[in-house]
Design brief:
Blueprint lengths: L1 E5 L3 E5 L2 E6 L10 H13 L4 E5 L5 H9 L4 E6 L2 H10 L6 E6 L2 H7 L5 E6 L14 H10 E13 L4 H11 L4 E6 L1 H4 L5 E8 L5 H9 L6 E4 L1 H7 L25
Parallel strand pairs: 4-5, 4-7, 5-6, 7-8
Antiparallel strand pairs: 1-2, 2-3, 8-10, 9-10, 9-11
Length: about 260
């Protein structure tokens, strides 16, 4: 069950795991490491006018964009209507152009217009796993259709060595996007532990050096992997078709828990 705890700011937990962190006095503050990396990508790689968020949580990134990119139009798609109602009731939204949708991410994409978004941000989890319906090549095609030609896709994924899930995701997105990168803590990319990985996809060259500098200088340093190193990482992995899609791996006990 969702739960909201307040001290100086707000921490949203779902079944005991931290899901979102919001500081109402400083909505441009991003607490979680992977959310900071999504924020860095939004800051460095794009100048969005229309953004689609698949997965709402406490609307951390929509709040961030509302203050860092005033005038940006945002659609937030959250499957859990009860969670969305709780967040809106407890955590007032800042000024901004928000449209909230209580809907399944894949179904909402299928109904969306072609080339309607500059950015699609996917942070879709059922509990602690990415649901199967947003891991397949059918989903990838819908994302590519909804994005404008110069648009950018950002996704929060989670895996550990030998990275069967992550490699298959990259193989699928490589069929639709010319440019791909991963952003993660070096220990995760080296296979030392389970953790979050941000996937970036685009149809055009992006400023990877600028993103690498930004993420390396963060309080929680991360590495950007792209080009030949990423192709080597994908190796012989195959894209996952709809009929074979499965959820991301179950994280080890305690991976995302709070004390």
């Amino acid at each position: 069950m969702p739960d909201v705890d307040r001290d100086r700011a707000w921490l949203l937990t779902v079944d005991g795991a931290p899901q979102s962190y919001v500081d109402l006095d400083a909505p441009d503050h991003l607490e979680f490491e992977y959310v900071r990396r999504l924020g860095h990508a939004l800051d460095v790689l794009v100048e969005p006018e229309d953004v689609v968020h698949l997965g709402g949580g406490a609307l951390t990134l929509p709040r961030y964009l509302a203050v860092t990119r005033p005038g940006c139009r945002q659609h937030v798609v959250e499957f859990d209507r009860g969670l969305l109602d709780l967040v809106v009731e407890q955590l007032p939204l800042p000024d901004g152009d928000f449209t909230l949708h209580a809907a399944d991410a894949r179904a909402w994409l299928a109904a969306a217009s072609d080339a309607c978004a500059d950015v699609v941000v996917a942070d879709v989890f059922g509990g602690s796993r990415v649901p199967a319906q947003v891991t397949s090549t059918g989903y990838v095609r819908e994302v590519a259709r909804v994005l404008r030609p110069d648009g950018v896709y950002l996704a929060n994924l989670a895996d550990s060595a030998p990275f069967g899930f992550l490699r298959s995701q990259l193989a699928g997105f490589a069929e639709a996007f010319e440019e791909l990168a991963l952003v993660a803590e070096p220990a995760v990319l080296r296979g030392r532990r389970f953790g979050n990985v941000v996937l970036v996809g685009a149809h055009r060259p992006l400023d990877w050096p600028a993103l690498a500098r930004r993420t390396a200088s963060d309080a929680f340093p991360a590495r950007v992997e792209h080009g030949p190193g990423l192709r080597k990482f994908i190796g012989d992995a195959r894209p996952v078709r709809d009929a074979d899609a499965v959820a991301s791996p179950e994280p080890p006990d305690g991976t995302f828990g709070i004390g």
